[in-house]
Amino acid sequence: MVPELLTPEHKESRITIHADILNNIDTAPGLLDTVTLKGTRFESVEAVKAKATGVLNQLTEADFQHHFQQWKSRMERFCFRLGHSVMDTFAKLQPARVFSRAQVFRWFKAFSEGRESIEGEPRSEKPLSSRNDENVDRIRDLLRSDHWLTTRITGE
After folding, report:
1. Average pLDDT over the chain, rounded to an integer
2. pTM, two decimal places
3. Which residues lie below 8 Å from residue 64, measured CB to CB, with a gap of 6+?
4. What percentage of residues in the chain have a pLDDT greater than 70?
5. Is 74 exposed, middle or buried (0-12, 13-18, 19+ CB in 10 A)?
6. Closest among 68, 50, 53, 73 to 2, alpha carbons compared
7. Angle ∠(88,6,3) on CA atoms, nearest 5
């Protein structure tokens, strides 16, 4: 799965690189002796491909987006700890087109203030929408009682 934030050229180049690695994996003797996934050693390329395909098929889009956001935050923290300026970091990460300027500045500020965690801040438990059965019934009753009501009056 490739993030949507990449340009088509970036996506194509990554797919080409990964395909090239998979096609040439048999020519690297001893490579499979060192390949482990979660502590499991694999005897053949097919076993690695089967396991990787199974893991990718189980990954939901929400999980992917969550882990992708964590990766972006780790990259920003890494650059901060190396002593790069915020503009240097933004310039280095910009070709990947996964970071907005505002996001880089926001994370750099948080890291410079001593933040260590890359987890997002807790969000309010406020509902995303005020549309519920009670409100729908109230609006319906208002409109039935006076169909000349404007949307401004209805919203109040």
Report:
1. 70
2. 0.29
3. 1
4. 57
5. exposed
6. 68
7. 110
Question: What are the residues facing 36 on neighbouring strands?
Answer: 41
- Strand, coil or helix: what is 28? coil
- 76 close to 107: Cβ distance less than 8 angstroms: yes
6, 14 Cβ separation under 8 angstroms: yes
Alpha-carbon gap, residue 104 to 102, rounded angstroms: 6
> From the CB of residue 72, how many other CB atoms can be counted at a distance below 10 Å?
20
Cα–Cα distance list, 55 to 19, 41, 47, 127 (Å): 18, 16, 12, 33
pLDDT at 49: 79
